[in-house]
Design goal:
Blueprint: H1 2-31
């Protein structure tokens, strides 16, 4: 079980970061 968690946790962090970057990029694009 811990192995599964260590595999899933980083993926969740990366996906959250990606969503943040995409949202920020979209905002910046709309402004420009």
């Amino acid at each position: 079980m811990p192995e599964r968690m260590s595999e899933t946790y980083p993926v969740l962090i990366v996906s959250k970061l990606l969503m943040r970057v995409i949202k920020a990029h979209a905002r910046w694009r709309w402004r420009a």
